Predict the 3D structure of the following.
Amino acid sequence: MTATLRSWTGLSDNEAISAFLYTLYQPDNRDGNWFQPIWEYAYTHAWHDDAAMARNGVWEDGGRIVAAALYESCLGEAFFQVHPDYTHLKPAMLAYAEEQLAGTDKQGRRYLRAYVNQWDTPLLDLARARDYVRDADEDRPMSQLVIPDPFPPIRLPQGYRVQSLADDNDLRKVDRVLHRGFNHPGEPPEDGLAGRKKMQSGPHYRLDTTIVTVAPDGQFVSFAGLWYEPVNRFGYVEPVATDPDYRRMGLGTAAVMEGVRRCALEGATVAYVGSTKLFYQSMGFREVARQECWLKYL
Ligand SMILES: CC(C)(COP(=O)(O)OP(=O)(O)OC[C@H]1O[C@@H](n2cnc3c(N)ncnc32)[C@H](O)[C@@H]1OP(=O)(O)O)[C@@H](O)C(=O)NCCC(=O)NCCS
């Protein structure tokens, strides 16, 4: 099985990579490949480095994508997506990433953070042999919730409600809750709306599974992005934030669980989140897989 390497060629490749990722899904994320929503969230994110996309590497066999080496946010990171019949490509993919996906730090040093599935012994051995060192703080864990059936009631303090962006997609309110919820002080800058629009621009983005908790004064104070993956039928949580003035009131939980509930109505039996925070554990999410981060200065 010989595959040929090419680089990312343009916007149509985003959908081609999505189609490839759909085919890779394994329950519990055993293989460590990205779920399709991880990719779509990455390339529609406001901070994604769009200018470097042609550095992403794509391997094809007979016109079909069989592997891809991708960065998530910016150069300096490499995530390897590989069809199970093409795992022999991984050494070449790591070499490609060192050449094309390396970043440069503030001291001018070239580096690469390579993400390797915790069970991928051959690639872990190769990374060690090539002098990568573990950078566990940057690991990417994946946690899973087996969606309860019957679904428990969504609990909220009096006067608060959950709704989706299909009910009200007020981008200023969205911008404010995400700005404050991710611990940026004060009010959001005026120019933030374009980034929020971009985050809604993906072909599979859904307003009706993106949930906000609304305070009695009408402000959005908690936000939970839920992605329903319709091919393999699961929910994926990203991003989540609660305004610091409204934390520990159960509002974040209410937003996430309302989104999960909506995914369950469409057929999801599990939901995933890329985190092991106590916040998610308190809802019943448990770690099922981990992408270990391995760092090398080149
Ligand atoms: C994580 C976050 C979304 C939680 O939102 P929240 O609305 O305060 O969460 P809830 O009130 O629903 O918390 C439910 C439970 O989660 C756990 N929890 C929440 N925040 C916690 C914290 N900082 N430390 C420990 N446990 C926490 C607790 O068990 C809590 O129940 P309790 O208050 O009865 O003890 C919020 O702290 C936040 O926006 N943080 C910054 C952005 C972020 O980290 N987002 C998640 C990215 S993966």
